[in-house]
Amino acid sequence: MAKPSKSISVEAAKALQNKWKESRALEIEQAQGYQDTREFWYSLEELQDYLDYVKEQSIAQGISKPGIRIYFGAYAKTPTKKSYATIFLAPTKEKSNPILEDGEAVNNENNYDIDPMNIGSNGYPPINY
After folding, report:
1. Using CA atoms, how far apart are residues 37 and 29, in angstroms rounded to an integer?
2. Is the peptide bond before 91 cis (omega within 30 degrees of 0)?
């Protein structure tokens, strides 16, 4: 199998992570009062199962070009747990009439008829890439 066209180098990934840490991590830590997680893990099997589920549900809905949007989220603070960051995967579907935002076509919208995915593992303390 050929490398996907949107793959980036390890060096580029490290630069993205470093830029995120330099530009956001300290402010989040100061606002929260503790270091938050910034990396999340899912097994390939979990991801593939979810992608297969979205594809199957999308086909049943007549959606020919489904996608996945990744959102940041945060868990609720409890008396015993901090409000750590998380991500969730949200299915999308192609818009019938794409609109332009900032000169770019927005061709997809959230598909609220398919449940999102969460409950991965988050790294604490965070692991640098």
Report:
1. 10
2. no
Q: How is the chain split into domains, by residue range?
A: 9-38, 39-122
pTM for the structure as a whole: 0.82
Pairwise CA distance, residues 116 & 113, whole Å: 9
* CA–CA distance, 127 with 21 (Å, rounded to integer): 12
DSSP H/E element including 15: helix 10-20
Identify whether the C-beta of residue 41 lies closer than 8 Å to the C-beta of residue 123: yes
**64-78: b (≥16 Cβ within 10 Å) or e:** eebbbeeeeeeeeee
Q: Do 110 and 92 contact (CB within 8 A), yes or no?
A: yes
CA 53 – CA 124 distance, rounded (Å): 29
| pLDDT digits 0-9 by tens, 9-34 | 999 999 999 999 999 999 999 999 99
Distance CA 105, CA 19 (A): 27
